[in-house]
Amino acid sequence: MQSLHYNNGSIKLTRERATMVSRWESHEVARWIAGLAGIQSDISEIFLKHCINGAALEILLREDLIHMGIIKLDQQLILMQSIDLLLTLTNRLNSETLALLFMRIHCTAITCSNLLKRYDEAINDNRHVMNSPEFYISISNLSNAIVETCHWLGRLPFIENVEYIDLRRKIIKALVQIRVLIRNLRLVDQINMPKSKLILEINELRTTAISLVRQNKDSLFSSDCYLTRVNLRRPIKDDVNIEYTTMPDFTHIISSIETEAISYLGSGFSAINIGDEIIEINNQVVVCHLFQKKKIFKNLKNLNSSSVTYPKFWRCIHV
């Protein structure tokens, strides 16, 4: 159970239910509203009266609050800021990070280890383990968690970092060793083949994973795994490699630039800078504010064919 505490109330929900805001019922939304710091006691009843569920909460606007009879500015501000914070929180909890991926390795390794210890009889008869569907499922989950993590570590910018390269090599080696030991358990049945080596290998992997989650201070380790390399071809035939990050509000922010054309870096109208927002990816125009659309299409007609267009003065909303 996970408890979300506010000023004068709390909601006790499972982690899954707490993060699935879109599936909240009206009474759950009302309970959440009642627990917000600085909110009036009757506000939750107003939400309940208008049957505001989780799906409606996600798209609630200030005009909707006024229509519901909530006209005090301070109450509107608390509600809008709290809703925005809630949606940002749920987005982060649902997004994949290296910390989350290694936490999956830790949890699946614990399951495997516990099952092995349960079947670790003194006579070392491995038939109970090899005939256990639970064990195969747990090993499959552990293998999938490791492979998925290795896929992320094999992408930019992790593949260019020596520490992450070594980390990827280490967990791949652990996966190979675990599979070899399991194969040996299949081949050797009632002979003296203790499962202690397999238990030890899984426990070492589990310890490594949880240590990384608890001790790693690198911002990449806790950042969303939505890092992509984009190739931008300039009119002068210079290839510019741009790495961008997709933010919770679905804007695309340039996080690193590699180019030999110094004139396009630094200052000036045509310069590319870290922090610029991308408005077009692979000829797919990012939808912006309505009053900017005509300006975007007008300017795009004057541009040469590019895989990414990056004017910093256009605010992206979603793809």
Can you tell me about this structure?
The protein is an alpha+beta fold and 319 residues long. It has three domains: 2-94, DNA polymerase, domain 1 (Orthogonal Bundle); 98-222; 227-318, no CATH class. Helix content is 51%, strand content 13%. It has 13 helices and ten strands. Strands 3-4-5 form a three-stranded antiparallel β-sheet, with no helix packed on it. Helix 7 packs antiparallel against helix 9 (133-153). The model is unreliable at 1-16 and 287-319 (pLDDT under 50).
Please tag this protein with its features:
319 residues; 13 helices; flat; DNA polymerase, domain 1; single chain; 3-stranded antiparallel beta sheet; disordered C terminus; 13% strand; alpha+beta; 3 domains
Classify the secondary structure makeup into a structural class. alpha+beta
Residues in helix, %: 40-55%
Main β-sheet, spatial strand arrangement: 3-4-5
Spell out the helices and strands N to C: EEHHHHHHHHHHHHEEEEEEHEE
The largest pleated sheet is described as:
3 strands, antiparallel
Identify low-pLDDT runs: 1-16, 287-319
Could you give the distance between the termini? 35 Å
SS element count, helices: 13
The total of beta strands comes to: 10
Structural Rg: 26 Å
How many structural units, i.e. domains? 3
Mean pLDDT: 69
The proportion of residues in beta strands is 5-15%
Principal-axes geometry comes out as: flat
